[in-house]
Design brief:
With about 350 residues, this protein is of the alpha+beta class. It folds into 2 domains: about 5-125, Creatinase/prolidase N-terminal domain (Creatine Amidinohydrolase, Chain A, domain 1); about 130-355, Alpha-Beta Complex (Creatine Amidinohydrolase). It has 11 helices and 20 strands. A 6-stranded mixed β-sheet has the order 4-3-2-1-5-6. Helix 6 (about 100-110) links the parallel strand 5 and strand 6. Pfam families: Creatinase_N, Peptidase_M24. This is Aminopeptidase P family protein. InterPro entries: Creatin/AminoP/Spt16_N, Creatinase/aminopeptidase-like, Creatinase_N, Pept_M24, Pept_M24_MAP, Peptidase_M24B, Peptidase_M24B_aminopep-P_CS.
């Protein structure tokens, strides 16, 4: 059953006649057609899928091959939407509640049909990946692992964090990536104690620990990978912390299975960190879903994720970390595929502490 038909099958239970999709990732997921945010919408009726956009996309739509979706060119997206709904007697139109207030106001003023918000209807469909999506995520993860090896082979003391990020960016795009899914983190020395540091003009020095966290789109899907390595000899405490974080990462992977609760999965790694005395230095969730977006459902799993249960063919991250102010920090992140047959680690780069020289 196609993704569009799966959505259409929900209409009776949702008590709607049609569904409006405005999130570009969800439009792409349902149709395979790529719109930029704000450049149109997708109307799913009981029988049709209509991409409503303007003449900048006319040639792309003419080249677009689909058995289910057709295009309509207009400069008045929502006026045209209303006319279509009136013509086929749509009385209740569902829409994504993630749209902006401005767009809601436009719909509220324009539509003759009743409009009803729904939360994450398509995102819930995206949680479970099909075989083609899994293969694309494998390809993305493989490229990330290779990108990490490229950084290790080229980094040396005296480089700035931003230079390292730029080197990685060039290499990833030269080898198949289209763009980043979030700003690359290169955090060295004391900066590594900041979980969401950004690449700065700080010079990487001998004795620095360096955290590299990056995500790139490859054929529409993104991996998300973090590795931490050393430049020269590092503080002995950081060596111990590295071992703890790596053991926590492995414990979470071993605890992952279909049906596992999010809080129990988190606990598998968090308890090791707490028992080592670093509970207060681990201040974020253990991981999240990935796919067309770098943060997908399950949006996060941590100590309070009792209602999250892993399902077959979900892809999630595992990213424990310890962050010590004025010293540095360690985070190691893998992407894993959950299956009935076990867990597949997609990011296969070594998780052992690597020390690079100059």
């Amino acid at each position: 059953m196609s993704r569009i038909k799966r959505l259409q099958k929900k209409f009776d239970k949702l008590y709607i006649d049609a569904f409006l999709v405005t999130n570009p990732e969800n439009i792409y997921y349902l149709t395979g057609f790529q719109l930029t945010a704000g450049d149109g919408c997708l109307l799913i009726t009981q029988d049709n899928a209509i991409i409503i956009t303007d003449d900048r996309y006319q040639l792309a739509l003419e080249e677009f091959e689909s058995d289910e979706a057709v295009g309509m060119i207009t400069r008045d997206y929502y006026g045209t939407l209303n006319k279509i709904c009136q013509g086929i007697k749509i009385t209740v139109l569902g829409y994504e509640d993630t749209l902006s207030y401005y767009l809601f106001d436009v719909l509220d003023e324009t539509m003759s049909a009743d409009i009803v918000p729904f939360h994450y209807q398509i995102e819930q469909m995206r949680m479970v990946k099909d075989s083609s999506e899994v293969e694309l995520l494998r390809q993305a993860a493989n490229l990330h692992s290779a990108g990490y090896q490229y950084v290790l082979a080229n980094i040396h003391r005296g480089m700035t964090e931003r230079h390292v990020a730029n080197l990685l960016d060039f290499w990833m795009k030269e080898h198949g990536a289209s763009s980043t899914s979030f700003p690359t983190i290169v955090a060295s020395g004391k900066n590594a104690a900041k979980p969401h540091a950004t690449a700065s003009e700080k010079i990487i020095e001998d004795g620095d620990i360096v955290t590299l966290d990056f995500g790139y789109y490859v054929n529409g899907y993104t991996a998300d990978m973090t590795r931490t390595f050393a430049v020269g000899s590092i503080d002995p405490e950081l060596r111990d912390v590295y071992q703890i974080v790596n053991e926590a990462r492995q414990a979470v992977i071993e605890a992952a299975h279909v049906g596992q609760r999010g809080d129990q999965l988190d606990l598998a790694g968090r308890q090791l960190i707490e028992e080592a005395g670093y509970g207060d230095e681990f201040n974020h969730g253990m991981g999240h879903g990935i796919g067309l977006s770098v943060h997908e459902l399950p949006a996060s799993y941590g100590p309070n994720a009792k209602n999250v249960k892993l399902r077959n063919n979900e892809v999630i991250t595992v990213e424990p970390g310890i962050y010590i102010p004025e010293i540095g920090g360690v985070r190691i992140e893998d992407d894993i595929l959950i299956t009935h047959g076990g867990v597949e680690v997609l990011t296969d780069a070594s998780s052992e502490l690597i020390i690079v020289g100059d």
